[in-house]
Amino acid sequence: MRKPVGEITRGTTGHNRLRRSDRWIAAVHAPLLRGAAGAPLAVDLGYGASHVTALELFLRLRAVCPRVEVVGVEIDPARVAAALPYAREGLAFVRGGFELPVPRPPLLVRAFNVLRQYAEADAWAYWDLLRSRIAPDGVIVEGTCSEVGHRAVWAALGAEGPRTLTFATRFAGFERPSDLAERLPKTLIHRNVPGEPVHDFLRDWDRAWASCAPFAPYGARQRWIRTAELLARDWPVTVAPPLGGPSRWRLGELTMPWSAVA
What we know:
Blueprint (H helix, E strand, L loop, with lengths): L18 H16 L6 E5 L6 H13 L4 E6 L2 H7 L7 E5 L12 E5 L7 H14 L5 E7 L5 E8 L2 E9 L16 H4 L7 H15 L8 H12 L14 H4 L3 E5 L5
Protein name: Class I SAM-dependent methyltransferase
GO molecular function: methyltransferase activity
GO biological process, one term: methylation
């Protein structure tokens, strides 16, 4: 086979590390999967040293779309060999990289913690390659998370380009919202400097969080929701389901159009 596109990552992973992104994917993109003709295909790109995140994605997507098939793609042949015993009907593991060596264009690609080691220009290039490989109405969810998954940020991309940016956190896992900046996608993390939109947004988010401190006695969840409502006065954070509104905010999420921070 041709040499896979990309480099081997550290491969660190663990149970439920990607639970927050999986929960979002299942809630937001279940209609996309269910509306597909035949068996929709999803890819877990760069699942790492353990098969567990690919298996968890498979089980969580099967709960909302029983016809979905999942392929775990990993560039390290040893990791693929270790995962093969866990394959089952609808779940497979193959060696590959950003070229996505799967039998048909996937409707969904989840790629987490795979672009951190690349330069910003390379990250943009791999976004372009992935977009060229998905189905016309497909979606890519690319982001990073902390070692135990308590902080995560991801971008959703379609064939046309980036669509949204989502922040997700455990309420006990941060002191102020800008703590999530360390998990920004590679295409944004070096842009978190004065004068850039993403820096302005995080600054205003911290200010809104501080302004909503009187709601802290009611719990971090209520403070988070009130902060989102206040922030929505100046920033286009999504306020309607399925991407936003209190039903998503209460889970520790905040989604906004990519164009707001591009």
